[in-house]
Structures are given as structure tokens and as C-alpha cells.
Amino acid sequence: MQSSLSQVKLKTHNFAYSNPCNLSSRTQLKHVVFERHDRETLSPQAKNLFNSRTIFESDSEQEWLLENVHSTMISIKINDDSYEINSNYVLSDSQRFILVLHGFDKTESWTTWTKTIQPLSQRCSYSVIFVDLPGFGRSSGRDLNQASWKRNGPEIIIAILSSFHIENPVNILATCVDPILGGSATTVRTINRYPAWFRDRNLIFTNSVIGDFGESKVGDFEKNLTQFNIHIIVHWFPDEDHTHHCVAYKRWNKLRQSGFRHVQLIDFDPVKQTAQLVCPEVRVLDIGRCSFKHKAIVYQLSEEYIQQIINTLSAGNGS
């Protein structure tokens, strides 16, 4: 989805806030505003995906998704940089929110974690937000590695959250396949700028690869986790090369070995774990980018793994 972003003018000036418990709190960057444009009906892309028998074999699951999921576009302006973020969401009566972020492989979009929507909502009353990050799916962005995306990533995340008028800290479920720009990497940098958004929450990172923690100095990240009682659970496939050479894996491993209680690493069993498997591709017009413009990719998740995600999120203080 291409747009003349430099010409974006928001009708209203809703400022993103840095602390969900203080809606008048301002972001570190001076001018971060948003406007949410809810669709009257589910987007054609989401509707076509949910109607796929390849992915959703159960009539009850299909009917529930079609009835409860809503589509929106969130316009965000950060100083001179503008973004339009495609989002799908389901709201519950509780104030328990989870933001789900995809990785930065060319196949990734909001669709990857869709098998978790109904379980998260029905089993533990989460309001669930799925987004296409800039450069993916139907969100704006000319390519996958915009310079402004990394720079403004934390502000984009809290503008998305602010657009739902959230008044409590949130949980995160994120993937990271790019060491700089994935969902997990962006969350880490958001923690360093706006930790109050995640106070007393459990965050789940899948196979997290992070090359830049976005700190003023090394150790600030761990201090924020401790001060705000944030717990990160990293699900990963053990890989000796990554542990020795990847910045994030080395740091995660060091924290595990030191007994740092705010980061927990859970090794995937490559034989039993299905978290990295995907369902057969589904043709959905205009849902993605480039060679995947008409292809939807959905993670194939075992019931055991979905329940593990739910148990981990629910174990967080105040969740």
C-alpha cells in the first residue's frame, strides 16, 4: 500500500502517551500524534483469510473470527515522518491487552499469529491487536528497511497502543528474524524508552534475534526490566553459532547463566515444537508485498504451544 506520506494531515491531534496510567504523559519525541480510522466492516483481506478452510477448519472458529475481529488503519505522524498502520483487533470487556508483532522476513505480516486470536480472547479475555509493521502487508512504507522505522519504532508502537485508549500496561507476543527491525527488537527498544507500558507484564519473544538494544549505555535494559518488574520469556532454538556470534543471543545467554530473573530462555525442542512451522499458503488478494502480495502466511501452532503462551502471559503480575 503506497501513499503520499509527507502530505498526511491528521484531522485530530491525539498525542501518544508514554505511560498508560497517565494519559497526559508525553513521549520523548516532541510531536507524536495519531488518528484511528475504523472500518465499518472487516477488511476484504481478513474476511478472505478467515474463510479459508485450509487454515480454519472449524466452523465455530471461522464464525467467531468473522463476527468478532475488526479492521482499522492507524495514521501516525512523528515529527516529519508519517506512517499508516494496518491493524486487525478484537476487544474484550477487560482492560487486558496484548499486542502481537510479526518478524521482518518478507513472508511476515499480521496474519502469522492469527491462530492465537480466538484462544487469547476466549480463554483469558484478552483484547488482541495485530498489526502490519511499516513496509509489510498493507501498511505504508516503500521497503522493509526504512531508516525512519528503526529510529521511530518505539513511538510507532506506543502510538498504536495509545490509539486504543489503553489505560493499563500491555503484554507483547513478538517474533524477530531480523536483528534490527523485527517485532522483538522493536519491543526491546520500546522498553528502553517507555518501560511504563510494560510494568508488571510478561512479554514473549520467539527466536529473538536483536543486534541493537537501543540503550544509552549497556545495562540500561536490564535496569528497566528490574525497576518496572518486566519479565521477558524468550523461546528459541539453541544454535551454537548464534550463541557465540549473535549480539542478542550472547546477551540472552549471559543473562541466563547469571541467573537474572527478569529474562527466561526456553529452548524449543526441534522434534516436538511446531512454533516455526507454517500452514499451507493461502491466496488472499493484496494482503502482502512483492512476491507475497497475494499470499497469506499463518504459523501452524500446536495446542500445547498455544496453551504455553497463554499460561506464560497469565503468570505476569497484574495480568
Automatic annotation (TrEMBL):
It comes from the Eukaryota. InterPro entries: AB_hydrolase_fold. Gene3D superfamilies: alpha/beta hydrolase (3.40.50.1820). This is Uncharacterized protein. It comes from Rotaria magnacalcarata.
